[in-house]
Amino acid sequence: MAISTKQVRRTAPRLPFRSLLRDWQLYILILVPLVFFVTFKYVPMFGAVIAFKDYNMFKGIWESPWIGFETFREIFQMQGFYLALRNTFMLNLLDLLVSFPLPIILAIMLNELRIQWFKKGAQMVLYLPHFISWVIIGGIAIQLLATNTGIVNNVLKSLKLQAIPFLTEPVFWVFTYLGIGIWQSAGWGTIIYLAALTGINRDLYEAADVDGASRLRKIWHITLPGIKPTIIILLIINIGHMASIGFDRPFVLSNPLVTDVSEVISTYVYKTGIQSARYTIATAIGLFQAVIGLIFLLSADLISRKVNDQGIW
Predict the structure, then answer these.
(1) CB 208 within 8 A of CB 221
(2) CA-to-CA distance for 145 and 210, rounded, in angstroms?
């Protein structure tokens, strides 16, 4: 039986570097972020061995003596560590409950706007705080919310009202922390959901219009199910970050009067590990955070797969 030329081409083995030669520009573009991640994400992982050594900067990592898990035993005996761990979980949980749904709501609201100039202007106003440094945000917060000198409390005093201790009372500080965090990040978080909304088939909305569905009905039955996979993935990622927290936000908003609620893992590592030059302690706490975060991430992904049949992998 004769074999055609097309069949020979289909069965002929492909050269392994053919796609590399054909799309070499794309491979060069992907090489830049690849080098970045290898250099700044994977290579530093070798430094995790410091957590199991009595690290001496003059001897270096490999010449420092091994001490096994002694550093972890010391950490688990520190009262301040448990306070920082509790505050980290508390603030992250509150952020998850309050801050996570808001970008979804904002994205749906922006998607429903029909006046394009207003929509673009609203997006710009919402995105802008993300580009402001937390140091500047902390200064603005002090100028606005300080108990004795803040603009807000000065206005309240002029109206014969009692000043509100936004930054000096633990309970008020937590609400202030959450509110400022929402203002800074909620608008930027809408970008991902707006991108997901563009992938929804517009024919579904037209069919719903024909059936006489209201706007809320379309949001509930078309919009939310359309972005459900994105919501689940981002929720799993956020749960994976429950044991870790950024340094800038709690550090610039904190003060000695609210240490009981503002001291988190990142600031505790800075004070105990970096300022005191106890790099073994700092590395061990960082490794502990990474392990706990991995457990949370895998657990959330497993539960999501069991319940919704959707996950990261």
Answers:
(1) yes
(2) 51
User: Do the beta carbons of residue 71 and residue 281 sit within 8 Å?
Assistant: yes
Q: Under DSSP, is residue 283 helix (H, G, I), strand (E, B) or coil? A: helix
pLDDT tens digit string along 83-140? 999 999 999 999 999 989 999 999 999 988 888 888 889 888 999 999 999 999 999 9
Q: Are 163 and 73 in contact (CB under 8 A)?
A: no
Q: What is the pLDDT of residue 19?
A: 74
Task: Tell me, letter by letter, the H, E, C secondary structure of 133-157.
Answer: CHHHHHHHHHHHHCCCCCHHHHHHH
CB 96 within 8 A of CB 239: yes
CATH number listed for the domain at residues 75-133+185-308: 1.10.3720.10
Backbone angles phi, psi at 249, to 5 degrees: -60, -55
Pairwise CA distance, residues 257 & 187, whole Å: 31
Residue 301 to residues 192, 228, 240, 244, Cα–Cα distance (Å): 20, 15, 9, 18
State the span(s) of the chain assigned CATH 1.10.3720.10.
Answer: 75-133+185-308
pLDDT band of residue 166 (cuts 50, 70, 90) is very high
